[in-house]
Amino acid sequence: MIVAGFGFRRAATVESLSDALQQTGAAGTVAALATASDKARSAAFCRFAETISLPVHAVDADSLARQETITRSQASLTARGTGSLAEAAALAAAGQGARLLGPRVVSRDGLATCALAKGQKS
DSSP string spanning 24-78? Predict the structure, then answer.
């Protein structure tokens, strides 16, 4: 199963999130979306998930902080305790033994990031 993890700013739109996913080049292979628990309730994120008919995994702060990410953003480390919210959310939701398919990508408007993780969950 491939999970798309997201990090995004408050100003992110459905288009921001969609573009970030498209930037990964693997939009059609994704089975689920993931982000931090508080962000999972964002109106734009909920509309995005509904638009592409994928389930959302809301990941708690402790699970995010336990993930080993490729990207080491100081802003993300300070705010979330992880180097990349998108990478950590994807890994946590994909389950134990999951691996990142690459570093996070950024939407063209700079408001959203997306990372993919492949895991054994079904």
Answer: HT-GGG--EEEEETTGGG-HHHHHHHHHHT--EEEEPHHHHHT---S---HHHHH
What is each CA distance from 111 to 3, 82, 122, in whole angstroms? Answer: 20, 18, 30
Q: Mind listing the pLDDT tens digit of every residue in the chain (122 residues)?
A: 999 999 999 999 999 999 999 999 997 899 999 999 999 999 999 999 999 999 999 999 999 999 999 999 998 999 999 999 999 999 999 999 999 999 999 999 999 999 999 998 54
- What pTM does this model have? 0.95
Number of residues written out for the chain:
122
CA distance 49 to 4: 11
Q: Which helix (H) or strand (E) holds 20?
A: helix 14-24
| Distance of alpha carbon 6 from alpha carbon 26, whole angstroms | 14
How many angstroms separate the CA atoms of 86 and 6, rounded?
Answer: 4
The DSSP string of 79-113 is HHSSS-HHHHHHHHHH-TT-EESSS-EE-TTSSEE
